[in-house]
Batch of 4 targets.
Target 1
Amino acid sequence: MNKHIRTTLAGLLTSTMITGAALAAGTHPETGEALADDQTFTYRILDEHSSVDPQVVEDVSGAEIVRDLFEGLMNQDEDGNLVPGVATEFTTNDTKDVYTFTLRDDAKWSNGDPVTAGDFVFAWKRAVDPALSSPYAWFMELMSIENAAEIIAGDKPVDELGVTAIDDHTLEIKLSAPLPYFAQMTTHSTTFPAPQKVIEEFGDAWTKPENIVSNGAYVLTEHLPQERSVRERNEMYWDNDNTIVDKVVALVINDENVALTRYLAGELDRTEVPAGQFPRLQKEHPDEAISFPRLCNYYYTFNLSDGGPEAFKDPNVRQALSLAVDRKIITENIMAGGQPQAYTFAPEATAGFTVPEVEMASMSQQERDELAKELLAAAGYGPDNPLSFEMVYNTSEAHKKVAVALSQMWKQKLGVNAELANMEWKIFLEERGNQNFDLARGAWCGDYNEASTFLDLLQSDSGYNDGKYNNAKVDELLAQAKTSDDAAPLYTEVERIIAQETPVIPIYHYAGVYMMDSDVGNWPVNNVEQNWYSKNLYKIAE
Amino acid sequence: MLAYIVRRLLIAVPTILLLIVASFFLMHFAPGGPFTSERPLPPAVLANIEARYGLDQPLWKQLWDYLYNIVVHFDFGPSFKFKDRDVNDIIAQGFPISLTYGSLSFLVATAVGVSLGIAAAIKHNSWIDYFAVGLGIAAQALPNFIMGPILILTFTLWLGWLPGGGWNGGQWPYLIMPVIALATSYMGSIARITRSSMLEVLNSNFIRTARAKGLPTRTVIWRHALKPTLLPVVSYLGPVFVYVLTGSVFVDIYFSTGGLGQAYVGSALSRDYAVLLGVTILYGVLTVLVNLLTDLAYAWFDPKIRY
């Protein structure tokens, strides 16, 4: 272990000491804003969370709650950068296959017990244990932890997982392959510690508010399924003195229009803006309607498998269809929420990712349409022999609007007959997964802030590659990127190949489009993964 | 009468069993499963999950285990989606909520609907009649998924009188809008059925006889006309009662009440097999019981019916 990476804590500690006293005065220690007396943050979630068990949770709203209740080795700051969590620093060896984390000695569980390296060992073994059958067990495999894959497959006992508690404050992890971004992955909820004693005492019921013990800035105090969950300040949290928000309330509101109404009635501090309503809301509430880039893409994928349509095997046809899509109409007239137009698969907002000069992006729409006509004619399709196919999407108003717009653009510009078909979500996934489609909608949100989370979808043997795109060069570049210190040029090259071959039609990249009460301070708009921590928020006095 | 009730309850057992078996197979034959997701799970992970929930067993074995756990342990199985809770938890939490706002809606719809219908029939072709018919038709045209947003806009956003949703243990400010939303369209139907039934009864021979022997109108209506009038209403109320009791998915969605309606529809969409089946069984049992009650009520309303 000769190469030491140290995360500087000095600055953070100094500000901690200064701020302790300032909080009582009711002003924010850094910005000097007057703080509201009622430090309650109330926000809307679309659906009931799946679980608050860190090793079991699998949905976004559940992960948001878990991120407040539990704290992992590392956290993210407002910009998505890595900052210390339970660990104060970590070191790695030259080959980047052994990581050693040093844990702070003042981290405590909400029952007062110290948080130890053993709690992480217990949690990580739990995550891969076939007996728990965590739906996120694959994440430990993705982290390349030694023997994770074998344990999940039942070929090795759980005890052989490559994590060791050297002592109470030192955690060592052995990897089966070098992984430069391993530490980034420890901000994911699956890797958060779990309280062994409590889990053994209560079994599956340990996550109920009356039983749960957690080590994050908050504890779960109330849970009314399908209605609300409430988390309140954890007095035992090591950084409790710097936490400002006292109480966080998540209200389950399935209908986004009802949620918006309740927001406007003052019941919520944050809600999503329904598609198409952003321009109006921005005009009426300029301080509250916000839009910022998210780490998600929206695309259509061609079925390139053997059973797919013959026409799509010709790259000219695929490119023609992509060129004829006027993305501006979709982002500005249909979504209208500040979504960026997409000409690449990975969003520009992805960390360390340089968007390649894609020819299509620099052309005018008229030039694109001209080229599209030429390419389609060259492929042998025209008025006498029109191209026809079916496009499928999962049932939703917004997806339907986009699909209708696409089919109209293709019809008017190229004389292509695209027939629309919508399906219920699970049926849609099944059909798309079995390549029973011509052209299908897709969308992907990054699991971590690195271009591979998107580009891996186009790797030939990826389980997510529903279009069955297969390019040896792309596979090779992606494999290289896994272990490369500077993967950015490799990803750029992959995008360049994708732009030429067009296995997918990128349409737009997501934006987080919210109504956010202007008294909410420090919402991390620059964190593209939207990993937010309530402990970093504050409510400003009105 | 007692023998009749016992016989009906005995017939209910194979009925419910048939319901379980049919639902079980229909559910499993629907494309996609509980763990079909946009991020398909690696085979080893999926295998562990399926083994944990017994989904790797043949279907007949799964059905057998399911029935066995219900009969022996009264355990309706786990939820695949909400991993912190099982089906018993979900029903124990959601059903009392649905039951509360459902029975209130039922009472409101019945009381208001029947009164409106009777008033309209007695004052046939008067302004009361026109008003009641107009109100009834308007109410019928306002199903709960239309009423929900209208109520929230009016009472939460514009007037600011009522909270826009939530349950809060069923405090009355949280109950008003769900109850109105759910009751309105049934109230309309009940008013319409009551009115036409009453009109028909008022024109029948025995009412003419009652009037001819000089009984005051009030006695004619309450003693002689009311019971036969309510017969068709009661047969309509039976299924309505089950429907409002088991929760309305729209009320749950718009008002975040946390009732069973949402759990039911949600479980079908997410293929949460045990939840879907558990709620189906509850609905089935309720339907059987309410049908029995309806039939018994017939006997009380119509002396010609004997069990």
Target 2
Amino acid sequence: MLFLLITWQALAVYLDSSTFPMPVLVAKVFWQACVTGQLPYHLGMTLLRLIVSFSIAMLFGCAMGIALGRNRKLDAFFDNWLVIFLNVPALVTIILCYVWFGLVESAAILAVVVNKLPNVIVTIREGTRALDQDLMDMARCYRLSKRKILLEIIWPQLHPFVMGATRSGLALIWKIILVVELLGRSNGMGYQLHLFFQMFDVASILAYTLAFVGVIQLIELLILKPLDQHALRWRR
Amino acid sequence: MSAIKIDILNKRFPGVGEATGHLVIENLNLTINPQEFVCLVGPSGCGKTTLLNIIAGLDTDFTGEISVGQVTKKSKIGVVFQNPRLLAWRTVRQNIELVQERFQNAELIDELLDVMQLTAFQNVYPERLSLGMSRRVALIRAFAVNPDLLLMDEPFVSLDAPTARQVRDLLLLLWKKRPHTVLFVTHDLREAIALADRLVFLSAAPMRFVSEIVVPIPRIERNNEQAIEEFRQQLMNEYPAIKQLI
């Protein structure tokens, strides 16, 4: 970390360019953006969109993934669709959503969900296919209810896959959500970055990036890691 | 609970692609009386596990009929598989409680844990247990539903001899406390003689009924190795056909 800072500082002094600001300047801009409330507001908007679109994508993705993993006919039917949606460029879905539904919040959310959903479905489907049939037989012998089977037998086995979908999903959504904001919203990180780009304000861009990295670390540290530890407490 | 009648005309596994598949069970007629302890003895791979799956209701793809008396959906079946099949992410006690979904009975679990000497391990995750202990947990789980019918599929295979004997004794102890019908699959004749009221011999695939023999040794003498060995020899001499089965 310290090494990074020193290298950064040295490079900045050497280049002496307005497009490569010194760390001190970035820190100053960061502080100012925080004090004026600009950065928290835009970061908050982006986070809000992230939470909403992520929740929707995970919920439907898990449900559909389990369904496809357990039902071969359904899977055969949707398989081609999945491949198509997996590979449609994010930009296309974003533009289409805005064109068809207007420059509104729901179109923005929908665009993100459509981009994320196929990934979740595919990951959870693979997880469902890998379920232990022995345990399912055991559950059927003892006539466990559907609810118990889902909560006690299927879900714990899917946990690594859900966490995988969560991590790769967050990374993907961050990237897409900024483009969505850049193209059709008047707030959020994407919108701000676009603004800074037009003014060649590199210090602000870096300051926002810094905030970004911080939030991602916090999510990992405070939410994902504890979840992992709790779910895998039975491992030696 | 009334008797279990098994009447399977045939059961075949479908072939892959062009192959015709193969016959696993053919013309099997068996009646198991209430509270009887029956051991099914046959060579490995003869379809005993398939038979148990059919009786447990896991496999319905066969021609024939199974009547498990009046007990249908409400019946309580305990099953002990070849491998313990415990949920690794639940503790020993949670694993047992899981099958008591409709009838919590903590006292029964306490008692069973005590008998199986696992009380100290009830809050441990299964990964920390030895195989013998895991099998004991699987046994407790089967008894925890207070079963009318207990299906056991070579539950003591790959245990060392002393452990297997210990678990066998515990099984008999529990069975005497709460008599119920037991169908016990094994390919170990000594084990079968030590446990069963009646032995049913089955042939190699396709599985057919070969013969049945009531074990005359009184229950108190069942831990007498010599008596069991003598009876085994006697069986071998009287029924040469058995020799090829085990």
Target 3
Amino acid sequence: MTTIDTPHPEALDTTASSDNYLTHSRGFVSWALTLDHKRIGVMYMFAVLGSFFVGGTFALLLRTELLTPGRTICSADTYNQFFTLHGAIMVFLVIIPSIPAALGNFVLPIMLGAKDVAFPRLNLFSFYLWIGGALFTLYSLLAGGFDTGWTFYTPYSTTTTTGGVVPVLMGVFILGFSSIFTGLNFIVTVHKLRPPGMTWFRMPLFLWALYSTAIIQVLATPVLAITICLLIVERVLNVGIFNPSMGGDPVLYQHFFWFYSHPAVYIMIVPAMGIISEIIAVHSHRQIFGYRYIAFSSIAIAMFSFIVWGHHMFTSGQSGLMNTIFSFISFSVAIPSAVKTFNWTMTLYKGTISLTAPMCYGLSFLFLFTIGGLTGIHCATLNTDVHLHDTYFVVAHFHYVMMGSALIGMIGGLHHWWPKMTGKMYNEKMAITACIIIFVGFNLTFFTQFMLGSQGMPRRYYDYQPEFQSYHIVSTIGAYIMAIGFFTSAVCLVQSLLSGPKAPANPWGGVSLEWQCASPPPHDNFSTTPKVGNCYDFSVVRYDEKKKEYSVDHDMEIEHDAHPAGGAGAAGQSGQSGQSGQSGQSGQSGQSGHGGSHS
Amino acid sequence: MSRFHGFPEKDPFKDTLSSERADRLGMWIFVIVVAMVFAATILGYIVVRLNPHMVLPWRAANTSGLPLTLALSTVVLVSSSATLHACLVRARRGDSAGCARLANITYWLGFAFVLLQGEAWWTMWMRDVKIADDLYAWTFYVLTALHVIHIVGGLFGLGTVARRASEGAYGPLHHNGIVVCGIYWHALDVIWIALYATLLIGSR
């Protein structure tokens, strides 16, 4: 089954034409009612980054409050609202939709070689559901805010007097549907819109990651939806199965919530891992090491995600047997995560590494995810967790995974595909500087919190013992440094829109299909059927000194297809392609990475 | 560059057959979503029902069992699934008139199911069973309401199928609307049987 009408494999149009998806039609309505996945992706991106600004502002406010013990800038109740809003906005409005809905929407169909997602109208509907959910969340601020923590645990959420609980629950309910429909769309797209030649094991790893994520979105999010519904019924009517005075069980709420929210953690991290697979391979110009292992580890993580939720409840009164089982299964998640990390490291080994901005984010990811992952082992260990539970150690752990990994992956992906999305190159030095500032600020903020937590500082506390203050000061300074880094990054990207040089079709030397259409892509993505080859075989990439851009040599690709290297597919070709990639490109790719991509 | 006129059509599929296959897969995935909602609800019910530390009795002693109309509504819903399948068989045979008649019957059976559920609620209400009384009452009202909301959604689909069948839109080659709607409707049928069994066990 194909997706494109005219099969002319040799004639791929990679020259930037005046008619691209940005200029195809004009005016507000053309964007508001667009069915183009690329425009919907861009709209998501703006919405998500706007929410990131709001959530980040709350983070800075709460870090400022924690500068001194007792009151610094606000009351305890206001502080409770700050950390709740920070958590809820960052999780539900930013990280969950950031990669699948924003970058995924833009990239998935192009990478796959399709014209669009399977259900373009449903895609637009998902976006407006997101907007509806965001409006409800915004309204909850006007209705008195909420101070339950982003987890909405009962009985806090059923008894608090803050007026914004029901609106924000409505918001999260609606956002959940947006997520479900995006996942549904992606699964059907991957199954039904692969062009000829795009077999499962030729798909770029980012698509495997999005596919795994979509499975989690579809299976886990409905449970959140019904949980939120039951919680609203309970809060409004003061009855329900979470109410112990009626024979209900408040811990049941935690089971329900974490049955969704632990997989949700993987909704956030798995697509980021997909981005890192792309960045590491493309920017080290080397065949990805262990393609199938990385692909299957995404699926394995998706499967494991459904059977580890109980590790959030080690101190909630679960039975000892349940705690032990959940602890053991939680350790197992380390296996597919480590498989990915080792494979990325092996891809880097002897690769021709271009230290571009996306690669800097990729390397940051490797470092931060390793720390975040390994500290997860501490939290999965039962007796250690009893000490660490609800301390800053856990806060630091999940920020290393959620922010240091998922969000850094998203920002890395944004830099990787920015030239494709906008048709403009950014100032690479400025982008790398921003990345370094973010990296330093992040570690200052959160590594300190590991120490705070292991020494007994509980999370979510407004007040603390004076001996913790020096750590809190360092952490707050780190948060402001991070804010400077993100601001620098934003300035860099905006500047590229205003005065950046024109981006070539293939600025980094990628082989996957999105690099074989113009930057920005045309409305229909490809004017002809794209030729699908091994998307990690960089030996077919050539660098044009005059044009200062890469191109894929399709004759070489056909030759490779006719004489495949060994029978082991990816593994068999990795050495050859990696080496020839190096010999053919090493000097050039370095140039392009640094000097060639901007003036 | 062109001026924008409404939703721009951009069919990502090469042909109708591919598009129809995608529609069916999409509906199957949606059915899994709906099944997860009900699975979670039934599981939550089992957890609280089997809780050995319940403070209050599961059900007040003076509450009577489930209204008989629920049993009747079950028969009606199963019948509607049967008529919808018969409607599809007629469409495949090219019997447009039979297809339209059965599509209409299915729609009205679905409508009757909603009315019967309303009658069951009324009966329980008149027996003075209030949602805040105990978990038995809570389970009855929440589970039936959750299901009937999905049924109402399905009625929109069935209404469209009935209208298009009346227009003669379905035939041996084109009847995907009935198939897609049927996947959802039959799934709701199966889910209702599971829910009804849950309610019956809970009423003991």
Target 4
Amino acid sequence: MSNLAASADTMNIDAAAARPLASRFLSGLVSRLVIIVPYLWLLVFFLVPFIIVFKISLSQTAIAMPPYVPAFSLEDGISGFFSQLGQMSIDNYLWLTEDALYFNAYVSSIVIAGISTLLTLLVGYPIAYGMARAPANLRPTLLMLVILPFWTSFLIRVYAWIGILKPEGLLNQFLQAIGIIDDPLLIMNTNTAIYIGIVYSYLPFMILPLYAALEKMDYSLIEAAQDLGCPPISAFWKITFPLSLPGVIAGCMLVFIPAVGEFVIPDLLGGSQTLMIGKTLWNEFFNNRDWPVSSAVAVILLLLLIVPIMIFQAAQARAQEQSR
Amino acid sequence: MNSGWSRFNISSIVLGFAFLYLPIVLLIIFSFNESKLVTVWGGFSTKWYGSLFNNQGLMDAAWVTARVGVISATVATVLGTMAALTLTRYTRFRGRILFSGMVFAPLVMPEVVTGLSLLLLFVAIGLDRGFLTVTLAHITFSMCFVAVVVQSRLVSFDRSLEEAAMDLGAPPVKTFFQITLPVIAPAIVSGWMLAFTLSLDDLVIASFASGPGATTLPMKIYSQVRLGVTPEINAACTLMIGVVAVGVIAASLINKRREIQRQRDEQAAQRA
């Protein structure tokens, strides 16, 4: 065996030596490029933009184009850079704490995202559980059916709910036709509409990790518990739920994180009084043209999301360790 | 074991899928509505599809979206595949942690923040907003999704195949194109499709990154939706759903067929 490996080794060296120098140089260059090209791309289009956002959040609003000062430029040189550095201030952040609008927007984003995440969990859990207990030959099809809506446009799926929820919409027509209500329910332009929109749009994100956790579970544990006289509900809370906890955490974070910064759903389904931070940032930028303040809003939004993102990453790392 | 498939489980699945699909089905049904009122049925008609094709603004937007989608998905697939190779193959180089952070961060970044930051970059470097800037923005966020998809395939890749080819004297570049690429091809194809649909769907980032003359379809739909629900928009949405559904179903069928073929080949090889 070791002989074989040794002879393979010499062959390897022979082959390498036989390869012309130019081709070796070429493959070295190619492997460098494989690293450098995406690296540079992400530096320029991902990291640098964030530094710019941070910098502008410390600048002041001005009636100019671009509408903020100081605007660094290469012509000013190093001394110009430092004199402009003196003009930077944390005024925009102070402004965010003074105006209750922003504080309320942050709080209500987190509250709305939190309530919607819980509702998504309540809706998604029975579906994921049902899928995990379905006959094995049905499961791939069910999985495909959960993923399919995810491929259709987010905007379209939110738009579809406008026709259903509005006062003369399909839901009210249906409920009035079967005689449950006399006056139309006012759901559109309320927080309820936002909850429905978020639950609907993010349901696949909740179901997939839950299903992954529930499918791996050993159901003979439940049978054993029941044989020993444990009622089904307490068997669920004592066995099934704790075992699915990694899926619950992953699913909740996958819904909560994007829901906090959501713009389309509160804008289309929520009313004009709805406060969510993504919408506030959008208005600040497009309607008030206040670039420095919207940059500061963005920086704080990211800071808010760091904790849930770290919870999510920790849960993912633990799940990977367990599967090994 | 079948006792697990109880009435409760069946009904939760049926209700769940009804919830997932009913809004889309209703939207499609009402795109064939004769009446201009979206929610009152006035008989079957395809006239809104006709008026759709005469709506020049909408058709222009669709054309912009298609071009942005194809170009950005293709570039993003190349860059994303390179990023995935870097992440799995080159475990030691300076700045690796920063690199993997930059690949995974855009996946959880709020769209408003990504859009705003890219716009501020384009302003800072003096690039006029338009077709080019939307395409650059879409490449940037979708390449990270491609990287994740391709990386998951590369992790399970049997590297002894590559080693065998190189032992037989194939140079690394040739080995990549003849051995590695065919094996990870399904992941690359699904990465491209994911990038294309992400670009097709994106409203928020495009609104920040785009300028006059490069209005994408979601931007156009959004500006009309704000004015109210119309059957014409329903028709446009139905067509978009149709395009994506056909693509996804076709891709999954092709994948399935390949899988069956592969299993058959393996069985034949084992028998031999």
